[in-house]
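thread from #wetlab-drylab

HS: before we spend reagent money on co-crystallization trials with NAP, can we at least see a predicted complex? here's what I'd submit
DV: go for it
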Amino acid sequence: MTVKFQGDSKNTDPSITKIDAIIVGAGFGGMYMLHSLNKLGLKAIILEEANGVGGTWYWNRYPGARCDIPSIEYSYSFSDELQQEWEWSHRYSTQPEILEYANHVADRFELKEHIRFNERVISAEYVENSKIWKLHTSSGNMYQSKYCVMATGSLSSINKPKFEGIDSYNGDWYITGKWPHEKIDLSGKSVGIIGTGSSAVQAIPILAENSKTLTVFQRTANYSIPANNRSLDSEEVRYVKDNYSSIREKQRKGKGGVAFSNIGLKSALEVSHEERLKEYQKRWDKGYVGFISAYTDIGTNEDANETAAEFVRSKIREIVKNPNTAELLSPKNAIGCKRLCADTNYFETYNRDNVSLIDVNETPIESLVPDGVKTTEKTFDLDVVVFAIGFDAMTGALLGIDIKGKNGMKLRDKWSDGPRSYLGLTVEGFPNMFTITGPGSPSVLGNMMVAIEQHVEWITKCIQDMEADGKNEIEPEFTAENKWMDHIEEVANQTLRYSCNSWYVGANVPGKKRVFMPYVGGYDVYRKKCNEISTNGYQGFLRI
Ligand code: NAP
């Protein structure tokens, strides 16, 4: 396919790379996008800040990092050869194995030759009269393209630690989301970790094993379900490989993109206390995936939610020997309001003699000082501080780039009251720009790989139709975008999602507008909607 590329034909500057499509980011979204556009016959490249593929799995090398969706499902489905030849070792694979898979995919589909590594995009500007995107990178290079696909990730831009006195601290400090490549020796060291979200819940048991002491600074207790991780046996792998097509079909038709989640069909309130306990215990023993979907109304009804929440609290009390620590570790908010964590020996770790838990609600962190962390109560002498304080989720990576659309409108200004998009795929005023798993799409609320594949396939078809129809520009209508935003809000309000301070609403980043960013209506509903829109001549879009 030859792209009808308007371009800046007078510009013959050899330092400017002109290409049909530029993809920003070489994570799982960017890599599949590149492969799909290559297959379509477009000339496309990826600009990637890192020195390798993998996106969030490139950066998040902290001890214990793993996926929380079973690996046989947290993998690409687009190539049967790929899924037949690749062997996952564990139910939930480690970060190194996931990164190895990303590299395998990049090599197998010869993607690396189209990826410019160590290229951090600093600005992207739409030039209206020539209908091209102009991108600048921090190394001073310039790129032009008709299409610009932002595959920048939802959980990729770290929430930077802004603690007072951080520069005065004499010890070593690390951020889970930007962990060093070399092994860090913690033996004999006093370590502190700030945060108790999914990253910390995975890291804490391993940090505790490898350090002299571990002090955990907790602001909000989190629900966590044992992952029950284990190696996969050959019979199980054979079954999955023989049945991959039906498993993938089930993922695509499911609410959260997970085939083996065993979604309950009853209300938690229509069964007896004993029956509920039996069901929760069964799912607890099975491990993580599926716990929250035991009943239809855990996510929507406070009383139903409390039954699952109290079950987890009772488990915490059972596991953690010190009742005060158990109480501190017991979350008070609705279960599933924040992303549920998956762990291996998380609560058990608090029974170790070298681990202590500090409630920073009670005694807030005032600052970092030369010797460690100072709370309102005392100074904790620490050789190492680990910041596990999460991400500027969904919008951080996009707004980290100075994106300018029509009439010089900046995305930062358009999104100053929270992100706005049509389907989480496109933004009014920013023609020919697509976002993969952007705010307004279901993305982070389930299996990201399924979300990524659906987005990439929709965008590919959209570009193919643009070229087949001889169009130069596509962007959503203002009214369509507004209607989608109202719909996102309406469905979010039918759930308990607004009832706590999660990163879904941007609450973890000081000053960020409180808006529920992903679409909670379900992957299945969303996919149907996207398909209807494209089949019906791209309803809600202006194509010229
Ligand atoms: P997170 O869930 O946002 O957790 C950050 C933690 O840091 C929270 O406990 C937060 O407390 C705390 N925190 C933030 N700022 C703080 C401050 N100034 N002082 C004290 N505490 C502070 O981040 P995350 O653990 O990196 O996980 C983010 C998401 O990434 C997850 O929800 C998940 O979707 C994904 N993830 C997945 C896996 C996996 O299992 N595959 C692993 C890691 C991450 P508050 O709760 O009070 O804000």
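DV: The pocket of NAP is lined by residues 66-68, 155, 176, 194-200, 202, 219-220, 339, 342, 360, 365, 388-391, 444, 501, 503, 508 (CB under 6 Å).
HS: ok that's useful, forwarding to the group
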